[in-house]
Write a structure and sequence with these properties.
The protein has 320 residues and is of the alpha/beta class. Helix content is 32%, strand content 22%. The chain has an eight-stranded mixed beta sheet, sandwiched between helices. A four-stranded antiparallel beta sheet has the order 2-1-4-5, covered by helices on one side. The longest helix is centred in the middle third of the chain and has 18 residues, at 183-200. The chain is globular and about 70 Å long. It starts with a strand and ends in a 7-residue tail after the last strand. The structure holds iron/sulfur cluster.
Amino acid sequence: MLEVRNLAINFKVGSGLLTRKRLLKAVQQMDFTVAAGETFAVVGESGSGKSTLARAVVRLVQPANGSVHLDGEDLTALSGARLRRVRPNLQMVFQDPYASLDPSKLIRDIVAEPLAVHGRAQGAELETEVLRLLRLVGLDAHHMARYPHEFSGGQRQRVAIARAIALRPKLLVLDEAVSALDVSTQNQILNLLEDLQREFGMAYLFISHDLGVVRHIADRVAVTYLGRIVEQGPTKRIFEAPAHPYTRALLAAVPVPDPKRQRANREPPLSGEIPSPLDPPSGCAFHGRCPFAQPVCREQIPVHEQLANGGSVACHVRPK
Ligand code: SF4
């Protein structure tokens, strides 16, 4: 349903009369697909380009190169009325529900807005639909006449989800949507998202830095490093047999109660910081932090190779 091909997103940064603008390559050569009803997670450290990718998919930023097809239609080529026509199919939930909900508006009006703007309902029918949406996300009639500041973080995220599903999107992009919540509220929201997906068949593009959360919700996972996907595959394979040294290092940092998965914990811990995308390393961008790096890693960018047990990895060495 969603097909992202060779996607590249650049920003010009720096200002002033005497300083030259520099090119920040936030996303490079990203390729992946998401099937209807599937949850595809994009995971990586802060600065890996995953939130920029999310914004490009919903057309909040324009890519420099590549394409984003939804049901065969190239979103990057759309503008004006044609883009507005497909917008209902693509909705996004942000990390901070307080910042994404207008504090001056009642919950009723926040949830009603997309329905009213797209002419889906009005009057009593609109009121009924708003109540139906609030009930779907675990809220009720007495929440309608309140303001966002009267709600907890979890409740605000429920409101943001009600608004995002109002137009029955085919794809919901969730950008660190549970990261600001405590663990118990995270679990409640993840369960809610699973229930809604079962009921409406939406696909999720789930952006997160938290592997524990990703393991819970994703069907497939892409691991990103400095703007590139370095490994992708089915969630079970990624967690049980990670192929890329970066994936292995990320997993080694996650507490593992299951003794069968202790192997991952023998990996050397991830050292150093993610390099600046303004001055990316040559070759494999991970070479400065990789315990398996060889001379070729500094010179050539590795290309993706298919793995027999599912998915693909971009690494010259692929240590056992
Ligand atoms: Fe490490 Fe080389 Fe593989 Fe990059 S290509 S992850 S530096 S072994």
